[in-house]
Amino acid sequence: MSARPVPAWSLPPGDAPAVEAPGPWRDAVTREWAIGASRGAVDVCIVDSGIESGHPLVGPVASARAVARGEDGSVQIVEDDLGDVVGHGTACAGIVRSLAPDCRLHSVRVLGAGNSGAGDLILAGLRHAIDAGHRVINLSLSTTKRRFAEELHELADDAYFKGTVIVASAHNLPVDSYPWRFSSVISVGSHERPDPLTWYANPDPPVELFAHGVDVEVAWLGGGTLRCTGNSFAAPHVAGISALVLAKHPELTPYQVKTVLRLTATNTEGTP
Amino acid sequence: MSDEQRAAAAGVLGGDEETYRGLLQSIVDVARAIFDAEASSVFLYDEDADELVFEAVSGQGGDTLVGTRFPSSTGIAGFALVTRQPLVVDDLSNDPRFSRDRAASTGYVPNSIVASPLLHDERALGVLSVLDRNAERPFGVAELELLSRFSTQAAIGLDLLLRARRARSALAGEGSAALVARVASLLDQDEGDEGVRLLEALERVLASRRT
Asked: pLDDT tens for residues A15-32?
C-alpha cells in the first residue's frame, strides 16, 4: 500500500472546481472546433475481454485478436473467434460506438477464457494494439504488479510518440497500479452526471479526467444491455470522444488530444 | 510463559485462523447490513488452482457455500479480480448465460452484483461481493468509496488468514522454519519455564559464536 496520499478515484457529487485556461486557447479550442465533420474513420482498439461482434449497440468489429499462452509458455497473438467471454469488452465497445458511430472497432482479448489478467499477457496485447497503429486504445484495466510497471511505461511512451492515444481507467482504490498513472496516457475516473458528453478536467491529477461512469446502460452479451458502474465505463467515454476529435483533426498528437479534452472540459472556464 | 512470550509464540505461528475467519465474517455481515443486501461474500483467490473460493458468506447460501470454488477468469467477481477494478452490474437477469452459470454453481441467482478486488500491496488476494443491494437506494461514487474502504479491511483480514495458514502448514513441514514453529507451538502449551530457559541458553550460545 502506498504511503503517499492518493487522490479520490471519482469525482464527489456536485460541480467540479473550475479549471483555468489561457484566454486565446480557450477562445480557439471550443467543442464546436474540436468535434464535428469527420475526415475519416478512426481505429479504436478495446484491449479487454473481447467484443461481441454484431451486437446492436456495437455493430461490426473490424478485427479481433486474442493473446494466448502456447504450450511452451510463450505468449502468442492469435485470431479470436470467441467474441466476448464476459461482457466487459462489449460494454466498453458499445460506449465508444455510441459516441463515435463511424469509428472502426478492433478487439484484443487479454482477459477471460482462462486469462486471469497475467501482466505479461496484458503487455503483449497492448504492444500488439500499438504496433497495429490504432489511433485510440481503451484500457479499462490495470495491473498492481510493480515488475510490469517499467515495461508498461515504455509501451505507453512508445504509443505516445507513435501517435496512439491510450485511455486508461484510473484505479478506484488507494493502491498503486499501472498504466493509468503515467502522464503519457489519459487517465479517467467517474462522475455521477448521467450525460455521456459531460467530462471534467481534474485540477488535482494524476486522475486527469472524470467521465460518465455511474449507472451507465451498456451493451452486454447476447445482444442485451445491463446497467454498470465503475471507472471501467468512464474510460470508453473519453476514448469515444478522443476518436471524435481525431476524426475531425487526424493530425493531432496524443498530447494535443489531451490538451483539447482539457480545454473543452465541462468545468473549464469558457466551456458553454 | 509470560503474556509477552505467548504473544511472540503466537506471532511465529501466524495467529489463530478462527480469529481471522471471524474478522472476515464480520466484514461481510456489516457490508450486507450497510447496503441492505441479500448477501455478501469474501472470496479468496487460489493462485495455484486459478480459482476463487468462498471464505466468508453472509445471507443467501451462508450455510453451504464456504469452501465452494469456481474459475477466476469468469463471472463478475472474477472480472473485478482480473481487472483490479471495482465493478457494479445491475439487471443481471438480462444475461441468461450469467444466470445459468450462477445457478449451477451456487443455486442463487442475483439481479445485481457489486464486486471489489481485495488488493494488498501488489497482490490481488480475492474479491468482496455484495449481492442484491436495496435497489431503492442509489449507488454512486460515495457508496463505491465506502465499499473500497471495506475492501481494504477485508484484504488485510485475508492476508492475516493466509499468513496463519502458511504458519500452520509450516508446523507439518520440514526445515528450520517448521522446527521453530513446532518449538513455539510446544512452548505455548508448556506450563513450566524449562523450555524457555533452555532456549535462552541456546540464544546465548548462538550469540557468543557470532561475536
From this structure: 678 888 888 888 899 999
